[in-house]
Amino acid sequence: MAVHNIDVEQIDMSLNLSNCIGEVSEVGGQERWCDLYGHGIRVERRPSRRATQVVAAATNGLTWLGTISSLAHMERHRITPGTAVDLGSFDPAETSGFDGGKQQAKARLRTLNNRLEELQEVLYAQGKHKVLIVLQATDTGGKDGTIRHVFEGVNPQGVKVASFKKPTPEELAHDYLWRIHAHTPGRGEIVIFNRSHYEDVLVVRVHSLVDETSWSRRYDHINEFERILADEGTTILKFFLHISKEEQAERLRARLMTPDKQWKFAAGDLAERELWDEYQAAFADMLSRTSTAWAPWYVVPADRKWYRNLVVSEAIIDALEALTMAYPPAEEGLDEITII
What we know:
Layout: E1 2-4, H1 17-24, E2 31-36, E3 39-44, E4 53-56, H2 102-126, E5 130-137, H3 143-150, E6 159-163, H4 169-172, H5 178-181, E7 190-194, H6 203-206, H7 212-216, H8 218-231, E8 234-242, H9 245-257, H10 268-273, H11 276-290, E9 297-301, H12 305-321
Parallel strand pairs: 5-7, 5-8, 6-7, 8-9
Antiparallel strand pairs: 1-4, 2-3, 3-4
Helix pairs in contact: 1-2, 2-12, 3-12
């Protein structure tokens, strides 16, 4: 047997190994044989997909499986703590991390959906870990679509979505994080914030709802709030869905011209669009000031929805696979039970 220790993401897409990966991506390092075009290839999944080992039958003369990368180097999208972010240096139309096209990406996402479903089931069954996912974007940035596509097929029993709109009078009577804390995940849960506490350094800043002294100190508040969550066992992933101003215009036009999308369009969206530069500055400061080791930000190129979905899905799965998870042990004596 010839053994090749290569990243699973570097396997030739023409071999259609994504179908095989879906079979072997099981918690606990299970192994399965699969037959790819007559080549006996065994894929052994270790704790991280980055350490997947591919074993090819030498008798078939298969000694190399290609060099096409499928969303390699996720770290390119992660903001290193302390980095001064210039959003102008990030291309919102970038897709260079994936060497396939839209159709290949859809096939890949189906495999990732299956894997996420598996991991979420173990997370829920074990009832030990907590996961918080934060989505921020400009209007039309794709937060709803990301949730719909990335979490397709995942059991909703253990996944919740919290959306934070204009504060109610009761919420305004408390500190700005009061309404947030109640929605953070419990053990065994994944909670997705569709917008979040970051609105209090974005909308609040751009519209001067509080003075600069007030909103500028909130970066430190938020970092410490997230540190508390992390210290208490919450894994935090934050995604800024980065689209271009031109792409936003196209999406607004589509909403305006398509009858079944017109419900999404609001005249106020155009007023917010006039503040594009102000929002970009606020997003850049948010990313610079609040990407931490315990709660990192990812800048996700989101002009291409299929690439956006892959980046978010890969990052979530990487984080879940890094957790120590297993199904809880079965109750003793089950082998003695007879059901009649």
